Amino acid sequence: MIKNLQDTVTLHNGARMPGLGLGVFKVEEGPELVQAVKTAIAHGYRSIDTAAIYENEEGVGQGIREALADNRLARDQLFVTSKVWNADLGYESALAAYEASLERLGLDYLDLYLIHWPVKGKYKEAWRALETLYGEGRVTAIGVSNFQIHHLEDLMQCAAVKPMVNQVEFHPRLTQKDLLRYTREQAIQLEAWSPLMQGELLDDPLLNELAAKYGKSVAQIILRWDLQHGVITIPKSTKEHRIIENARLFDFELSGEDMERIDGLNENRRVGPDPDNFDF
Ligand code: NDP
């Protein structure tokens, strides 16, 4: 379990990934985006999660460059993730998409590059491209997103490199018990997207009861639950006070019983698309 904001989890290839990061889905290019990235890094975040489809890699890159200079950090002290979009899941097109993401970000490597969605019949070709990038030392780690167990099994039948990370929707109403167990057995790190269910969980009665009990916010209870499950998480906020709040998770511990009560909120309910039934 990570013990502070800059603590890392060691991936199966030995790469070290911060256990908490900032997400920037739905944050458009512009000063709010640049500022959110800078604010997070100034407050100690060392991991930023973006994707080509978010159309905000330029601002993320600007925020990163300015933050590195302001905080006298070296590039290798940050962990930057992006993702190859569904339209680019061929071998050559995934290689080209990587270069285009680097270009927009103004970086010469990524720490983690993910296949964004398991598009049937396409993700194996894209995986070969990610393996090439990894084999050439162009990217520190490679992984997938929105993969169910059967997608992982299918991919690993022909993969030379096992994915280091699987980033999926994960929160108290979608606890992904089987996937969590499977990825643990396989040494694939699970990473939670929409950990706060995009805000929908904030008025849940049990989570509010626990927030009062521990003297924490509902967001902090949820994010701490992620960490205690060994799941990396990337809450999104552009507000400084929430960016700070979401990282203050290291001065309390949820009891085993309360962890189980939160697990009990599971309804297998998604806020995002179902990886077995999406059409984009
Ligand atoms: P989150 O569950 O992180 O929720 C974000 C929402 O919660 C925003 O409206 C934010 O508002 C609000 N919020 C954040 N912190 C707090 C707080 N402490 N108290 C109250 N409200 C809060 O949703 P996301 O969908 O953004 O998921 C996180 C990240 O995961 C994304 O940004 C993206 O990087 C990644 N992701 C990946 C996907 C994939 O397919 N791989 C799909 C979806 C997301 P405000 O900004 O105003 O504070």
What can you tell me about this protein's structure?
With 280 residues, this protein is of the alpha/beta class. It has a single domain (8-263), classed as NADP-dependent oxidoreductase domain (TIM Barrel, Alpha-Beta Barrel). The chain has helices spanning 31-42, 57-70, 91-105, 123-135, 149-158, 177-186, 205-214, 218-228, 240-245, 256-263, and strands at 8-10, 16-18, 22-23, 47-49, 79-84, 110-115, 139-145, 165-169, 189-193, 232-233. The strands form two sheets. An eight-stranded parallel β-sheet has the order 3-4-5-6-7-8-9-10. A two-stranded antiparallel ribbon has the order 1-2. Helix 2 (57-70) crosses helix 3 (91-105). The mean pLDDT is 98. The structure holds NADPH dihydro-nicotinamide-adenine-dinucleotide phosphate. Residues 23-25, 49, 116, 145-146, 167, 193-199, 202, 217, 219, 234-239, 242, 245-246, 272 line the site of NADPH dihydro-nicotinamide-adenine-dinucleotide phosphate.
